[in-house]
Amino acid sequence: MTDKDNANWSGPLSDIRVLDLTRVLAGPAAALALADLGAEVIKVEPPGGGDETRSFPPFRDGESHYYLAVNRGKKSIVIDLKTERGVELVKQLVASCDVLIENYRPGVMDRLGLGYAELSAINPKLIYCSISGFGQYGPLRDRPSFDIVLQALSGAMSVNGSAGGEPTKLGIPLGDLVGGINGPIGILAALHERHATGKGRHIDVSLLDGMIGMLGYLAQLSFFTGEDPVPQGSQHPNLVPYGSFAASDGAIIIACLTNNFWGRICRALGLEDYELDPRYNSLEQRRERRDEVNAIIEGVTASKTVAELEAILNEHQVPNAPILGVGEALAQPQVVARNMVVNTPHTTLGEVPIVNRSIQFSDATQSAPTPPPTLGEHTDAVLSSTLGLSAAQIAELKHSGVIG
Fold it and tell me: Which GO terms describe its molecular function (predicted)?
């Protein structure tokens, strides 16, 4: 029986070791994706407080919700990179690692003696992923960056918000999380390439580049029309009806992507006369008469409950959804059926719920993710098993403040 035949399979990256020199969100999210796929991820944290997010409230028994959210499945070791011996320990670890991820500002790793040129000389197969707000070159290279800054500079904020209102930032920190998407894509591609070349590569992930890429059809719309798309609330700039519609006890999302769905919506809501009406039976006509179409739809939905609307829209195969809060979303039957929330035995918190891996494999079951580590929880074990240090050597390093 192979690992893939039982519930103890770690994942497709179980033979990959990652050195995680990241903090806060963009970098940790990238390392998290690899941990979810089974990689051994060794997170290096500074002495004292560790990753800054360990200090972000609210807390439970001293543990931050923020840190727990993006560090499951990792090992935590504490090394002081401001010491020569600390840097030397990292270099020793690099020799046995496949991937290194860092999200310091450009130039910091070079100043520490841990830049790509120096580390690739130690391990030519090393895949080194740098994640930063603006990338390794360009006029904004050295500027600090946070999620809201990237949303503003990418144009994403300009299209988010109520129609006619002020632009607002996305509730989900996509400006940072895009690093957790593009970083792993680049790393996996480089791992594939390494099979042929035997060599590693430096990956330059700019969060602004990622957000520009996320504009998708909105960028092309600007190219075509020469105009900036504007906030539409929950509506679509070109598709109608598409968005939130009032119900008698709340609101429901209805999405009409093609004329096929327009017919289904009309039949579901008893609006058969409008299905072939030349004023409304094409995408262009409905877009031009957006307010009329929305008023027609809401004239029916406002008299029915959300549950009633779900039932009739589902019966006619119309894309729809109630607008759930986060707690409701996590508890809904589909999420429960997919096992997307699991309990894990945290060292200090006991059983704690965490979000599960978002990628599943139909022919295999991965073992449950390990809990987010406490600060330095694995320092001794990693230095002993990976570098072969003795208990006396580890104790001396602790005494000198190099590790914790």
Answer: CoA-transferase activity
